[in-house]
UniProtKB/TrEMBL annotation:
This is Aminotransferase. It comes from Mesorhizobium helmanticense. Belongs to the class-III pyridoxal-phosphate-dependent aminotransferase family. It comes from the Bacteria. GO terms for molecular function: pyridoxal phosphate binding; transaminase activity. Its cofactor is pyridoxal 5'-phosphate.
Length: 448
């Protein structure tokens, strides 16, 4: 049909005719109309009808310091005028080296080196490919299986997507199933009726230990887990659970990969949550999203000094980690990330820590509503889960996707929600004020 000429047709119509958007259904792929957003400012976005909305999901958990930050626009411009790109194959740039140093300074344990990618999926993919390389070089080629959990979301590239634990992500998709071993989601809300939290946690740890014993530690290369399962519905694990899993991994020479694509850069009030919130020191941490507050696609994986030393001292110093992306260490992305980190360190992290209890408490008031089974969260991540019945906790399914219906109501009232079937996930920009939290919760209450 040739190229569409932008002109009379509006963007929604053009998109319907030519754009494939993420997560489409077969029956509407390439024909979808979604809300058209024209502007952003602070915690707000404005749609094409002129309706101003609180950006409840902060884009996709990423607009951490808020929209329309002139400092970030300026740093992008300045870096593009100085150096817009250089090949990371044969050359390097200063912003990426500076960023690596600052990230390593914030990282827990002996995490010392950073490989920069284009986003979260490529970060998880890099961590997994590094685990494979590491075990090949160590002469452990059979140690490659990956432990992952129900409710997990780790990305949309082939191997990262193979780890995803939400059924709808995999129902119609293939994956490297032969490489993945699945465990339960640490979801306290769905624990058997009458079971104590301590017994539930012990059960999860037993499952982990039994799985390692059954499959064989000599065949398991890594465990990959989000500290708080984000897209699974903000599943906050029970106390001590992550630490205990970390210990089992250490005892069995299984690399612990903490997927902090959502939780890093302030969502839980710290640059990294693994150490500062959960007291664990993973072998690798993956990050993306908040590292640039969504102003530029960037992600990465931080790797432990210990692993790099083992590689350097191995019998195969000439083995090559055959992995690199054209946009690894992109100078504009790294310059944006450095400025974003300045702003986070200067005020936004402290604000996020200060306002988080208020955010959680206000959101929690929605448990009064008869449709709401549970409100849960941590930091500036929250989830309102609607149930058919509070006893059975069966997910509410009015027209399959209650979240979308709530989102539609809220949209009219001035709030964008992240609908997840029967759940509404809220993760606003970290700069949100108490008054704006009040507005957000009032609209959500009315929407529900
Ligand atoms: N890991 C986690 C925990 C995520 O939530 C996401 C995306 O939402 C990803 C990985 C994938 O990141 P990206 O969409 O930037 O590829």
């Amino acid at each position: 049909t040739g190229m569409a000429e932008p002109g009379d047709e509006d963007a929604v119509d053009l998109a319907r005719r030519h754009l494939i958007q993420p997560w489409p259904f077969a029956g509407s792929v390439g024909h979808e109309a979604r809300a058209l957003i024209g502007e952003g400012d602070g915690i707000y976005i404005t749609d094409s009808s002129g309706q101003r909305l609180i950006d409840g999901p902060a884009g996709m958990w990423c607009i951490n310091i808020g929209h329309r930050r002139e400092e970030l626009a300026k740093v992008m411009y300045d870096q593009a005028m100085a150096l817009s790109y250089n090949t990371p194959w044969y050359t390097m740039n200063a912003p990426s080296a500076q960023l690596a140093r600052r990230i390593a300074d914030h990282a827990p344990g002996d995490l010392s080196h950073v490989f920069l990618t284009t986003g979260g999926s490529s970060a998880v993919e890099t961590a997994l490919r590094f685990m494979q390389f590491y075990n090949n070089v160590r002469g452990r080629p059979e140690k490659k299986l990956i432990l992952s959990r129900g409710g997990a979301y780790h990305g949309s590239t082939y191997l990262s997507a193979s780890l995803n634990g939400r059924p709808r992500d995999r129902d119609w998709m293939d994956g490297a199933d032969e490489l993945v071993v699945k465990l339960s989601s640490p979801d306290p809300f769905r624990r058997p009726k009458g079971m104590s939290l301590a017994a539930f946690t012990d059960g999860l740890i037993d499952e982990f230990r039994d799985t390692v014993a059954r499959v064989g530690a000599e065949r398991i290369g890594a465990f990959v887990g989000e500290p708080v399962q984000a897209s699974g519905g903000v599943i906050v694990p029970p106390d001590g659970y992550l630490k205990r899993i970390r210990e089992i991994c250490r005892d069995n020479d299984i690399l612990y990969i903490s997927d902090e694509v959502v939780t890093a850069f302030g969502r839980l009030g710290h640059v990294f949550a693994s150490g500062d919130v959960f007291g664990i020191d993973p072998d690798m941490i993956t990050f993306a999203k908040g590292v640039t507050s969504g102003y530029f696609p960037l992600g990465g994986v931080i790797i432990s000094q210990r692993l790099l030393e083992q590689l350097r001292r191995s019998n195969h110093p000439d083995a090559m980690f055959g992995h690199g992306l054209t946009y690894t260490s992109h100078p504009i992305g790294c310059a944006v990330a450095l400025k974003n980190l300045d702003i986070l360190e200067d005020s936004v992290l402290a604000h996020a820590r200060e306002v988080a209890p208020y955010f959680q408490a206000q959101l929690k008031t929605l448990e009064e509503l008869p449709l709401v089974g549970e409100v849960r969260g941590l930091g500036l991540m929250g989830c309102v889960e609607c149930v058919a019945d509070r006893e059975s906790k069966d997910p509410l399914q009015l027209d399959k996707n209650v979240g979308k219906r709530i989102d539609a109501h809220c949209h009219e009232l001035g709030l964008l929600v992240r609908p997840l079937i029967n759940m509404c996930v809220m993760s606003p920009p970290l700069i949100i004020s108490r008054e704006q939290i009040d507005d957000m919760v009032a609209i959500l209450r009315e929407g529900i």
